[in-house]
Amino acid sequence: MHKKRVSHGIFYVGLALAAFFCLPFWGAESTPFGVIFQLLGEEQNVAAEILLHHRFPRVLLAFVCGMGLAACGAALQVMLENPLAEPFVLGIAGCAAVGASLALSFSGLFVHWGPFSSVQLLAFGGAMMAVGLSLKMAARFGGATETVILAGVTVNILCGALMLLIRYSVDPSQLVVMDRWLMGGLDVVGWSNLFAMLPLILIGSVLLFPLGPSLNLMALDAGLALAHGVPVARVRFRICLATGLLVGAAVAVSGPIGFVGLIVPQAVRRISGPDMRSGLVFSALAGGVFLAFCDMLARTLVAPTEMPVGILTAMIGGPLFLRMLWVR
User: Which one of 151, 191, 217, 267 has the minimum C-beta count within 10 Å?
Assistant: First the structure.
């Protein structure tokens, strides 16, 4: 079992390294690999500038966002004992999107603090509201996960209505930008967006990734986990807080992106088994690679224009999820 876990770990790390070193060179204009050596010199041509200030930060940003969404999906599916649980389905991404949209659409709510802004703060607040509602519903109905999923679907509908209200209220000139953001996108220039989200990502990761052994016991039975000394309530709170941080950080930059937190953890469980000690990390690596690959397709399939990456994750993730259900 240990050898299998090590070999699978090498496989996922290899995929991540391949994504880092290969995907930046693909885009509307292909970049020769030799350009990377110009980054070390004093003089850089246009291709080197594109690679340094656009492609590398974009691939890394896609990887970080996918990592957070997939790791949260893996933890939520075990905590709620439901394979459908993930940030998008539970309305967490939708609530975070409403919070971020408020900051982006109304100048009175948009405040800068160095590299940070109220976009991250309101996205985190929206995500935490959705997570708190999910926990309350689970406690109210004795842990009935079907009720939690239905509550998440309802929250998604409400968030959709709130987004329509925001669209109705803003200046019409902003609607195109807002619509593109809501479709999910990672079209960034420079490293500022990545630096702004890193504190939330780091804190969320520190809270979430050490919980693998506890999640293993909780996957069997919450009462059994409690009998073995697992502070179940504290573990759930940490998962919720980490989810709010990771999803809020991702949505504030990329908009709401679905299916990453749904299909990636399930695929990892089928390939590498249910052990959450490694499953959280494997899901994070696979989620990062999946979103970075989808973003590469988004900027190449309809070049010289771009397709919103949220459309591609749905077009790829939807059929894959149906296939998983079919062969289950």
Answer: 191
